[in-house]
Predict the 3D structure of the following.
Amino acid sequence: MTVTDPATSVTPELDEEVLGAFAERLFGAALGTLELTTSYLGRRLGLFEALRGQPATSVDLAATAGVDERYAREWLEQQAVAGVVAVDGAAAPSEERRYSLPEEHAVVLLDEEHPAYSGALADVLGPITLSLELVVDAFRTGRGVPYAAYGLHDMQAGFTRPMFANSLVAEWLPALPELHARLEAGEPVRVADFGCGEGWAAIYLAEAYPRAVVHGYDLDDTSIVAARKHASARGLTDRVQFEVQDVTDPSFGTGGYDLVLATEVIHDLADPVDALAGMRRLTHGGGTVLVIDENAAEAFEAPGDEVQRLLYSFSVLHCLPAGRTHEHSAATGTVMRPAVFEQYATAAGFASVEILPVEHPFFRFYRLTG
């Protein structure tokens, strides 16, 4: 260990502008974290829903949402100061102020199928906080943190659902012309969804194409329970089925699927090569393999843009620990660059990897052949 002698050490000269800017940045991050957490309370307790289209005082909101009035009042004032809700009569006594939720804000917070929906992001802090000490231990031991320990399945499903609802059929599948033509012609098509989560991709695909049969596979039993519930609620259990299944198991599956899809899953797996090999087996005979994964930069750059910052943050806190729960792990993390993915695909037996011309801020689209 190196010991510094205080008598000989030199204090570095500080750039006050850089110092102040970074301190300001941390303050902004803390403020954003706190305000995101209060948005979680608004979603969790039904406060935003109660305010939508119905301006209310704190007494009104407490009665409608079934919460304590003093807590409702503090939350409303905080949301108004943050600019999330509007207030009429700010100078009036607190019990007379009326608060309203702008419809544009309501759409972003509550409408789960709208392209602008981002409310699920408010749900990330609770699970991440609860699992944080497990991540601390993982850093020290080199072990992983099981996916189930995070309890992130609802948040993850909520984040991707509007993309599936608005883009899967309208933009993503048309990038596979032969398959898309068959779907549009009403031909019977079999689809497998690897790492299906709560099943929204499978559900929207089946709703768009009445002759499509979709099988969703995921190792997380909680997600599969939710997926089955969603499929049942939408009357699709005759064509959409979900099973708990380790898609990396070499004995799993044979050919016969026209499309095998994996969205935001390959980078999370301890053994991505075996999962991709399974996708290849299931499409034996001419099926299509589509992998949708993170839009990681092709090479490391620092500082990075907001998307790369988001990916790395999720990687440190979730994806890398979740992928290291097996003794032998590829330890990919969220930032799976195209060259790394191509190595995995080649090792799984694919002859070529094509990046499809689909523009998306968060995802990159790979078609695998051979």
